[in-house]
């Protein structure tokens, strides 16, 4: 009993049958849309740029849209005893999230 011949049974390494991949990173327009959603939620909760923490968040959102770099947010918000945390992601597989957490004392 000998080994079976494996001639001609090698797997092909070219992936010509796969469709073209979409860009995996958010465009400036997509980043702008994500930040507008965050700003809308801030306005719904009655938070405006009169607070220094919100002003800092808006500056970071603007920088995120213009530069397109992934940012992690960690901004103290002592006026409301909260902490603004989140991720401004550039990769489409990662969510853009900004959360206000209650500071426990």
Written overview of the protein:
It is a single chain. By secondary structure, the protein is an alpha+beta fold. It has one domain (28-102). 31% of the residues lie in helices and 19% in strands. It has two helices and three strands; from the N terminus they run ααβββ. It has a three-stranded antiparallel beta sheet, with helices on one face. A hairpin with a 4-residue loop joins strand 1 and strand 2. The longest helix has 17 residues, at 28-44. It is globular. The mean pLDDT is 85.
Q: How many domains?
A: 1
Strand order of the largest sheet: 1-2-3
- Report the mean per-residue pLDDT as an integer: 85
Number of DSSP strand runs: 3
Give me the secondary-structure category. alpha+beta
Series of secondary-structure elements, N-terminal to C-terminal = HHEEE
Number of separate helices: 2
- Beta-strand proportion: 15-25%
Summarize the structure.
With 105 residues, this protein is of the alpha+beta class.
Structure keywords:
105 residues, single chain, alpha+beta, 3 strands, 2 helices, three-stranded antiparallel sheet
Any chance you could write out the topology, listing elements then pairs?
Elements: H1 28-44, H2 52-67, E1 71-77, E2 82-88, E3 97-102
Antiparallel strand pairs: 1-2, 2-3
């Amino acid at each position: 009993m000998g080994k079976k011949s494996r001639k001609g049974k090698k797997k092909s390494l070219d992936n010509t049958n796969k469709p073209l991949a979409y860009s995996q990173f958010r465009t400036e327009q997509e980043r702008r849309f994500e930040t507008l959603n965050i700003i809308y939620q801030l306005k719904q909760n009655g938070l405006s740029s009169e607070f220094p923490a919100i002003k800092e968040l808006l500056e970071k959102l603007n920088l995120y849209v213009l530069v397109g770099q992934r940012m992690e947010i960690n901004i103290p918000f002592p006026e409301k005893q909260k902490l603004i945390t989140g991720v401004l992601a550039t990769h489409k597989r990662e969510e853009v999230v900004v959360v206000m957490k209650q500071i426990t004392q």
